[in-house]
Amino acid sequence: MMKGQDIVVLLKLASLDDDIKDSGHDFPSTGLAAGVDPYSVRALGAALRISKTEISASLKRSIASGLAIKDRKTGRPKPSRHHLREFIIHGLKFVFPAKPGAMQSGLPTACAAPVLRESLHSAGSLIYIWPYAPAKEMGQSVDPLFKSVPEACETDSRLYAYLALVDAIRIGNQRESMHAADLLAQRLG
């Protein structure tokens, strides 16, 4: 059975792969010490603030469901981008629905996040946020797919963009969801 953190882990893997493509290097520029594999369970756990046990279980679930595969050359897990994209666009909001909650401070998500802020404006005056005490924005709270998402997004802007697009699909109206789905499809290839 899939869990919310499985999507977070898969999008982190996509973020790492995107970094490699953009940089032209064999390893993403993650700020880790030399020789540390950013795809390792330990590094993924540290980056996402998820236990190594949960990362390992998440990767197993994702491979079993077909949302991830093991790279033939490196043996590293990587997202099956096509399947992941289709699942997020067509099924995620039914499996992991988002329910807006109380007003509080947090990190902007969905249409209020930087990835969508300029291209799409919500009809309402309220923004959606992931509850996060250090953040200063006020908005209607939405539980992220995993509790450590706001913290992990502070150090990975690509992951932040992916997860904000996912939230726009989960909670947006039809126009917002379609626009976010188009952007997500472009990013996931």
Automatic annotation (TrEMBL):
It comes from the Bacteria. This is MarR family transcriptional regulator. The lineage of its organism: Bacteria, Pseudomonadati, Pseudomonadota, Alphaproteobacteria, Hyphomicrobiales.
